[in-house]
From TrEMBL:
Entry protein name: glutathione transferase
TM helices/strands, residue ranges: none
The species this protein was found in: Linum tenue
Domain GST N-terminal: start-end pairs: 1-82
EC class: transferase
Top-level taxonomic group: Eukaryota
């Protein structure tokens, strides 16, 4: 073991790094240290990661945080299949999609209290159109990449919550998004990281009532 990944099984940001670890075959090199976010141990903030958030990675005597930074760090510093495209056009599009990911997440969360369809139609349509850019595979850049890793944990949760609670189907009229979800669900790197749908609904309901 040469690294420790501090994570929480319920957290979509931490799930990004967990998927990356699995996809690169680093299960024996990076140990998962799951934390309970409702009851964070005092040592974590004091000794490990002062911002007290997950994910955080302990590697080579350093602590690194922020999920997308960690995804890139694992890709650059460890062996295993690359998740960064070589093609310049794909690289550029990857940067655009990664910088849009926070907007996507924020828009969907804020729609829970509003007119869901009106507010989330444009963001899910944007994903559908983005999935049409490269047609050499079902993923955002054609082949599986860090862009899918950035989006899939949120798509997974939004699909469950929007459909069960708000009766909105994110895949209706969006065949490419449906195909992305179907293909992601076949990935051995992703399957063990999926969260129980009931937990998602409960966590999002809590979030709603706290707003």
């Amino acid at each position: 073991v040469c690294g420790r990944l501090y994570t929480a099984y319920i957290c979509p940001y931490a799930q990004r790094v967990w998927i990356t670890r699995n996809f690169k075959g680093l299960q024996n090199e990076i140990k998962l240290v799951p934390l309970n976010l409702q009851d964070r141990p005092a040592w974590y903030k004091e000794k490990v990661y002062p911002p007290n958030k997950v994910p955080a990675l302990e590697h080579n005597g350093k602590i690194i945080g922020e999920s997308l930074d960690l995804v890139k760090y694992l890709d650059a510093n460890f062996e295993g299949p690359s998740i960064t495209p070589d093609d310049p056009a794909k690289k550029q599009f990857a940067d655009e999609l990664l910088s849009y990911s926070d907007t996507f997440v924020g828009s969907v969360f804020s729609s829970f209290k509003g007119d869901v369809a009106n507010e989330v139609d444009p963001v899910f349509d944007f994903l559908e159109n983005s999935l049409s850019r490269f047609n050499d595979g079902p993923f955002f850049l054609g082949q599986f990449s860090l862009v899918d890793i950035a989006y899939i944990p949120f798509i997974e949760r939004f699909q469950v919550f929007l459909s069960e609670v708000l009766k909105y189907d994110i895949t209706e009229g969006r065949p490419k998004l449906a195909a992305l979800i179907e293909e992601a669900n076949k990935l051995e790197a992703y399957k063990p990281t999926k969260v129980d749908p009931k937990q998602t609904v409960e966590a999002f309901r809590k979030r709603l009532s706290a707003q």
